[in-house]
Amino acid sequence: MDEETKKLLLENAEIARKTLEIAQRIERRLFWQRALKMAKWFIIISLLVLSYWQAQPYIGPILEIYKNIGGALNQVQGTQGNLPKELQGLLTQ
User: Fold this and answer.
1) pLDDT at 72
2) Which residues in the chain come in under a pLDDT of 50?
3) What's the number of domains the chain is made of?
4) Which domain holds residue 46?
């Protein structure tokens, strides 16, 4: 092998080694990016679940009040059909 070919091979090997180091750094960075992204979403979902669990005693009565109001409105609408036609006409205007 002549001197020029040997020099090119050594240069090529050095470039390949640097490329491999850069690729390994990129892979390591991608791994940590994925890990931190999953950790972030885990924390967000955990906080949402925990906040719902903590707020459940307050949400339950509010939902009951809402259901009671809905039931009362249904009763009012049901009694509206039993009124005389003159009153029904006034209510629809």
Assistant:
1) 73
2) none
3) 1
4) 3-92
